[in-house]
Amino acid sequence: MSDLKALNEAVIKGDIQTALMLTQNAMDAGKKAHEVLDQGLIAAMDQVGDKFAKGEMFVPQMLRSAKTMQECVKLIKPQFQEGDFKSKGKVVIGTVKGDLHDIGKNLVAMMMEGAGFTITDLGVDISADTFVQKVQEVEPDILAMSALLSTTMPGMRETIETLRKAGIKDKVMVMIGGAPVTANFASEIKADAYAPDAGSAVIEAKKVLGIS
Amino acid sequence: MKPLEIPTFQPRLKVLNRDQALAIHAAALEILDKTGFKMEHPGARKMLADAGCRILNNDWLRMPSYLVEEALRSAPTQITLYDQMGNKTMPLANGNPFYGTGSDATFTLDLETGVRRRAVKKDVENFARLVDGLENIAFAMSMSNPEDVPIEHIYVYVFAEMVKNTNKPIVFIADSGKDIAKIYDIACQVAGSEDALQRKPFILNYSEAISPLRFPENVMERLMFCAEKKIPVCFPSGSNAGGGAPVTLAGAMALGIAENLVGLVVHQMVGKGSPFLFGPNVSILDMKSSVVSYGCPEWSLTQAALADMRDEIYGLPIWAYAGASDAKVMDAQAGAEAMFSIITALLSRSNLIHDVGFLEYGSTSCLEMVCMANELISMSRFFAEGIPVTDQTLALEAIERVAKGEPGSIFLTDDHTFENFMQSLFLPKILDRSRYDSWKSAGAMDFYMRCNLEAKRILSEHQVVPKPDEVIKKINDILQDL
Prior knowledge:
By secondary structure, chain A is of the alpha/beta class. Chain A has helices spanning about 1-15, 15-30, 35-55, 60-75, 105-115, 130-140, 155-165, 185-190, 200-210; strands at about 90-95, 115-125, 140-145, 175, 195.
């Protein structure tokens, strides 16, 4: 157990080399992949999430921790048994038609991935039809859309309407965000969730899916 | 013979030496030459390729330095903006500073309730009228993204609203080549004709590429439209440290300048000699909240550095920001951050300084904040004028009169004081220096409350010279036909 504590520390510090070494050591010592994942990596990321929310960690440090975890997961993945790795949910994400600004969207995608969601990132400038087509294909739990420009916000409404016309609006939770987007706008266009920033995107996503 | 006058030193901030300026410029050129950029406008791409840029794949280009040199040679070193009556009010040259508001805030602090709410068209009107009535605010931007106008024509509506409520120069935003043409039509109606607008432009377009190094088609459409019509333009991409750009300020500046230079090259190819206001926005991405900060010292530092680069290299008037804050209400943080950027922008001699009056990292506009900034600009301006040293200001005669005068002689009663105090001292209007008891009996108002009263006073008393009926009718016709 003590070596997993050290692994926690390495993930929190974002020390990739040490974390990989400790992960390997734990596996060599006979730990199960799911123990390393749950107690070594996910437990560390929960602490990272707490520290970030309290303002004790900065964005690049949190992202580095997430990267450290991902590298370690890669290492133990071959040893996973059926059911070891449970995704918190599937998310399709992109910026709406006409909007090419993707820093915020990328940050949301990375943070959600770090929190255990499986992300399909469609990129930027995504039309309503493409969003809907991908939703049909991937069958995600959440469709996340972002807009930085107020002029591209109507793309969110259009996507929701297209989802409705395709008869799949009730099959997916729609979450929106971006600088000009407000909670009022979200309820007006009948989005299921609104997140003002990347940190709250994770919280809102968990909330709409009813997970902690 | 009369002795020579002693010139007045006017305090000036320098933050880069020549070697630093040249090294950042060289890095910008290297980015364009070695890394290249993504040009998504087919026309601009073809033009650049014909002029000597190398096409790597599809829309990725590399630019040789000589194209930059050529563009810098043909761009005018002075841009003059006029007010809407044709008066020359903003000669953007050398170190002339002009402050104005910002654009596109989603929210505003309500003047009556103080509550943050979604911006509406009436807010565009109020900000324009307030700007019209404040002596240190030289130009207007919309300050609002109103929710009660058709969103597909939002920029045409806010422009029309500004024109109806101020006669000062306007810095405007557009979405594409389509709505900018409508805005241009409105501006021509105000100026009288296309030719009159070109001779005495009262508008400047704000447009931006996407960092890092991406030039979308609609952005280039606007830039090329302005180049063709000789509408003054600025093109500051948001190469914010840690966001669209590297976290180190020198690299963020080099990237932003590189992006600006691509804009300048295309702009000068389309309209040789058309006015181009230089400079990127280099703020930072806050490492906790991931917002782009509007109150950080970094942005003031990079624009002071840009002013040094203007003096050392570019020679073009520059774009800047000041008088904004990350605070959510107009509190001490808002005052501190606003003053920091206002005085450094002035001391470094930035030219066109926008975003005055923003709270919440540019998401909320605040009328009281504009009134506060107006006063802080006066204060900074006074400081930047320096200390004139003349016989009159040395006042040796007054000293002798008072020191050797009748018992009870004081400077306050001396003629020299009466004749000189107005221009020798800074006389605050809203900053409070009253004695405690009178402050208390006047309602014990803090600065925010006093700025609130000042904003209300101006909005109720200030008369904006109205546009002729036929101009208003034509503007309304343009809006009808959208």
